[in-house]
Amino acid sequence: MLLKKAGCLLMFWSCLLLLVVPAQAQNDPHHPGHIIEGLVVGVSEGDRLTVNSYGTEIPVRLYGIAAPQTAKIDKFTGWYKQGQPYAEDAFRALSLKVLHQVVRIEIRDTLVFKTEPTQVAVAVVYLDGRNINLEMLNDGWAWAYRKLLSRIDHPHYMGIERMARAKRNGLWAQDDPQPPWEFKPRLKIKAK
Length: 192
Description:
Blueprint: H1 2-20, H2 23-27, E1 34-45, E2 48-53, E3 56-62, E4 65-66, E5 72-73, E6 79-81, H3 87-98, E7 102-112, E8 119-127, E9 130-131, H4 132-138, E10 143-144, H5 154-167, E11 187-189
Parallel strand pairs: 3-8
Antiparallel strand pairs: 1-2, 1-7, 2-3, 4-10, 5-6, 6-11, 7-8, 8-9
């Protein structure tokens, strides 16, 4: 039953991808992508949230930014991965901005993970006309994530990161914060 449900979910996401990002839009950096409105029903990290749009929950990774990684606990095995400094602050900042709010997401890309049957929408999140991705960057809760930035967006996002660094906002209060793509958490067994 579970396998059948996972297969249906995978089929749904595949169809959504075909509808959301037409072939010509995938290769055109000037095309804004598909826009979906929905209620933010969850925030899992400083750069990840879940949007419910007409009954469908869509996992979203914020385009162009990377927040510090939060600590993870596997409830089944008891393994614990430590998080990065300011990860909880970034999570709290994003939660305060968007949780239980109706947002507009502009999907730029989708990611598929080998370990999960679902796709993740990479999107710019707007709330009342505000670009939440850029706010998180400007407030110092994330790095500009060069790997996911288009050539057009790269200078703008990098400029905002430089301003946040200069003001020592958020995680930039640290002397040399380690970006999440370089962070290697140590595994520990959590005592019960």
